UniProtKB/TrEMBL annotation:
This is Cytochrome bo(3) ubiquinol oxidase subunit 3. It comes from Ideonella azotifigens. It is a multi-pass membrane protein. The gene is cyoC. It is found in: Cell membrane. Cytochrome bo(3) ubiquinol terminal oxidase is the component of the aerobic respiratory chain of E.coli that predominates when cells are grown at high aeration. Has proton pump activity across the membrane in addition to electron transfer, pumping 2 protons/electron. InterPro entries: Cyt_c/ubiquinol_Oxase_su3, Cyt_c_oxidase-like_su3, Cyt_c_oxidase_su3-like_sf, Cyt_c_oxidase_su3_a-hlx, Cyt_c_ubiqinol_oxidase_su3, Ubiquinol_oxase_su3_dom. The chain crosses the membrane at residues 32-53, 69-89, 101-121, 141-165, 186-205. NCBIfam families: CyoC (TIGR02842). Residues 25-206 form the Heme-copper oxidase subunit III family profile domain. Heterooctamer of two A chains, two B chains, two C chains and two D chains. Keywords: Cell membrane, Electron transport, Membrane, Oxidoreductase, Transmembrane, Transmembrane helix, Transport.
Length: 208
């Protein structure tokens, strides 16, 4: 016996007007803004933890003893340059130049990789000097805050490479433009967070 419902005599078949293909206007951007706000809360908690624990050295080294400001300044420059080059990619997108978009996205990715390389070098140097995250509450909060930002940059680079493949295959279609805009907001957000890290953690950490 069939389990499918049967229509009463003389009844018309139901008509569905939503075929599932409608995409709400600006829905993706709104959802992405909500995601960024949640990320803001995560970093706010991490900054708060560092504010509480940043002077708990447990008779160990302080930021003034450990931080190499010229190295951190070079690292900061890499991330800021990547934000500028991503802006150039967006200008190329508005002009409809696919190759220009791919070129500037590639340069942005290289700057991002340079940033991560310097950060990993800093972490490895600190751990080699015996200043790992288990040494004190200060270092635990430092590694957590800076490492979380580094993970975001890593995911951003993976997203960037994926988007380069999509643009290369599909061109500057509406969906790819929307993805480029979302990644742009994410990348600039990471820049803003890093400026906070550079100022609050590194610059203030070297003060006596």
């Amino acid at each position: 016996m069939s389990s499918s419902p049967t229509l009463a005599a003389g009844a018309e078949a139901p008509v569905f007007y939503d075929d599932g293909h409608h995409h709400p206007e600006q829905g993706t951007l709104l959802g992405f803004w909500l995601y960024l706000m949640s990320d803001c809360l995560i970093f706010a908690v991490l900054f708060g933890c560092y504010a509480v624990l940043g002077r708990s050295y447990a008779a160990g080294p302080s930021g003034a003893d450990l931080f190499d400001l010229p190295l951190v300044a070079a690292n900061t420059a890499m991330l800021l340059f990547s934000s500028i080059t991503y802006g150039f990619a967006m200008l190329q997108m508005q002009a409809g130049r696919k190759n220009g978009v791919l070129l500037w996205l590639g340069i942005t990715g290289l700057f991002g990789l340079a940033f991560l390389s310097l950060e990993l070098y800093e972490f490895a140097h600190l751990i080699h000097e015996g200043a790992g995250p288990q040494r004190s509450a200060f270092l635990s909060s430092f590694f957590t805050l800076v490492g979380t930002h580094g993970l975001h940059v890593t995911f951003g680079i993976i997203w960037l490479v994926t988007l380069m493949v999509q643009v290369n295959r599909g061109g500057l279609i509406l969906e790819n433009k929307r993805r480029l805009v979302c990644l742009s907001m994410f990348w600039h957000f990471l820049d803003v967070v890093w400026i906070g890290v550079f100022t609050f953690v590194y610059l203030m950490g070297t003060l006596p």
